[in-house]
């Protein structure tokens, strides 16, 4: 691939981006599209735009760019939550590190690569991209020290930025937790329903009191360690007691129960303590937020989870193998000589310059992108089948799967190009991995560059346009004749697709920085545009329905470290092939330093993202007790984890039924009005509510 083919691809993508972003700036001004481009504002403000006709509505303008640029991180935290702020931090980190890389590589490496061998150079548009890669540097060149120095600068800069970002985000996470309103999940633990039933039943008999149960509802009791949850639940459940709601019913309904504690510290203590000598017999973990509960998975027994995880792993591997078909076809398009030999009838067509440039420079990445659209929904399905009890956990698991899948297929499978047989033969010589990568990566630099253009630039303009939502809105208004701007079709931010995409481009940038530095300016433009587009979407489109409180940053940190180490291993192989023992010798300590830095960050910052420190929880408990907010929190806990919302009208209706027929006192959950979006999932899960102070009982 030559420079002219690269410029052709760049020109096509620049044109697509300009047209789509200009069209977006016009469509967002139309009152009929307010539900598409301002869904979050419809939910928060509950207002509609006026419909005055003005010429300005049909003229593209950069007002949305200015607004996105001026928005501060504090506003993003208030609007989009912790996850949105962390996601933008990932983008900002990428802008900073690749700004450094662009300056160093363009002024230091590109001249060395271009003049790496004594040859007659063509005009720049006719030059092959390989001339600008490290493959053009001759063996034994004394200028390879520049590549080693650049690798050191990029690695040290990345580690410094990672350290300060990790430290800052950890502080932001703790500040966000302590500054937010009391969270029911901090007082709640998910435990074994059968065990809790036996405890409640035994405690009730000790006090000569029967606990009352309601199917898919609440549980109350009165003992030394248990407090009565709600008198109203007795009216709802009628005479349904421990005798009627037996152990067999609990086993049939749900394998888990939510237990409330009087303090946050008590809940954390119970979640961390091993409840039984058999770790799989009785498991307790902190419960997710009420809006974050994935109700349909609460009925999955813990002993089935490892089987489900193995099953989804096997299914994911099978999906990867099937995906080799489109990837292999794409690689055939990038190698024009092989394509002409396989399909002789294409020789005449491919002799045309424009068709040649289109097939080799644009079409392969487009085909791969279209095939990649099937990956996120598939991985989301696998993550749901794994048994995650929270929606944020399911999305985070899908994020990791999509990330691994894209890195494997976009980078490794494309690097070791050819057929499926050549992919498998790679594993027969694992010791030659650095050398094989060193030979293969520079050859694929042109494909990775065009992939950044098509999958990066074009995808951002498509993200701004919201084609699917726009199409649905057009059908609703002009086919179904529905004119109201309903906010019921809003979506949460698709972290499971966007985080892997951003991290994949960062991965490509690190691995190709010293090998093919010509890609870096295109990457920097992508991250700069991504910062504005994603910020605009967070402000106007997506509604934060649940969040993981910054859990995506450790994923970004680990991916960056992996990218750095892989780039160093590839550089080590290149220096070995180029016969530069000095550069090879200096690269080995850099690999060790990077791994030690990663281990330090894991010990220093990772525990803060796994668990909230007890010191912080105790301070929050003491502050709430002094301010008198605990009683208010206890009142909220009584109705926090209800899959279906019971309205006061339904509650009064059930009370009147109790006077006529106690057997019909339990309302049908299927007829109850669903509350918020998190409670609209159907399922047969049963949630048990109680109030247990583990700290007081342990002291006794």
Automatic annotation (TrEMBL):
<dbReference type="GO" id="GO:0005886">
    <property type="term" value="C:plasma membrane"/>
</dbReference>
<feature type="transmembrane region" description="Helical">
    <location>
        <begin position="362"/>
        <end position="382"/>
    </location>
</feature>
<feature type="domain" description="CSC1/OSCA1-like cytosolic">
    <location>
        <begin position="205"/>
        <end position="297"/>
    </location>
</feature>
<keyword id="KW-0407">Ion channel</keyword>
<keyword id="KW-1133">Transmembrane helix</keyword>
<protein>
    <recommendedName>
        <fullName>CSC1-like protein RXW8</fullName>
    </recommendedName>
</protein>
<feature type="transmembrane region" description="Helical">
    <location>
        <begin position="502"/>
        <end position="534"/>
    </location>
</feature>
<feature type="domain" description="CSC1/OSCA1-like 7TM region">
    <location>
        <begin position="308"/>
        <end position="575"/>
    </location>
</feature>
<keyword id="KW-0813">Transport</keyword>
<dbReference type="InterPro" id="IPR003864">
    <property type="entry name" value="CSC1/OSCA1-like_7TM"/>
</dbReference>
<dbReference type="Pfam" id="PF13967">
    <property type="entry name" value="RSN1_TM"/>
</dbReference>
<feature type="transmembrane region" description="Helical">
    <location>
        <begin position="310"/>
        <end position="329"/>
    </location>
</feature>
<dbReference type="InterPro" id="IPR032880">
    <property type="entry name" value="CSC1/OSCA1-like_N"/>
</dbReference>
<feature type="compositionally biased region" description="Basic and acidic residues">
    <location>
        <begin position="657"/>
        <end position="671"/>
    </location>
</feature>
<dbReference type="InterPro" id="IPR027815">
    <property type="entry name" value="CSC1/OSCA1-like_cyt"/>
</dbReference>
<dbReference type="InterPro" id="IPR045122">
    <property type="entry name" value="Csc1-like"/>
</dbReference>
<feature type="transmembrane region" description="Helical">
    <location>
        <begin position="402"/>
        <end position="421"/>
    </location>
</feature>
<feature type="transmembrane region" description="Helical">
    <location>
        <begin position="86"/>
        <end position="110"/>
    </location>
</feature>
<keyword id="KW-0812">Transmembrane</keyword>
<keyword id="KW-0406">Ion transport</keyword>
<dbReference type="Pfam" id="PF14703">
    <property type="entry name" value="PHM7_cyt"/>
</dbReference>
<keyword id="KW-0106">Calcium</keyword>
<feature type="region of interest" description="Disordered">
    <location>
        <begin position="657"/>
        <end position="683"/>
    </location>
</feature>
<feature type="transmembrane region" description="Helical">
    <location>
        <begin position="555"/>
        <end position="577"/>
    </location>
</feature>
<dbReference type="GO" id="GO:0005227">
    <property type="term" value="F:calcium-activated cation channel activity"/>
</dbReference>
<comment type="similarity">
    <text>Belongs to the CSC1 (TC 1.A.17) family.</text>
</comment>
<dbReference type="Pfam" id="PF02714">
    <property type="entry name" value="RSN1_7TM"/>
</dbReference>
<feature type="transmembrane region" description="Helical">
    <location>
        <begin position="583"/>
        <end position="601"/>
    </location>
</feature>
<feature type="domain" description="CSC1/OSCA1-like N-terminal transmembrane">
    <location>
        <begin position="5"/>
        <end position="165"/>
    </location>
</feature>
<feature type="transmembrane region" description="Helical">
    <location>
        <begin position="6"/>
        <end position="27"/>
    </location>
</feature>
<keyword id="KW-0472">Membrane</keyword>
<feature type="transmembrane region" description="Helical">
    <location>
        <begin position="143"/>
        <end position="164"/>
    </location>
</feature>
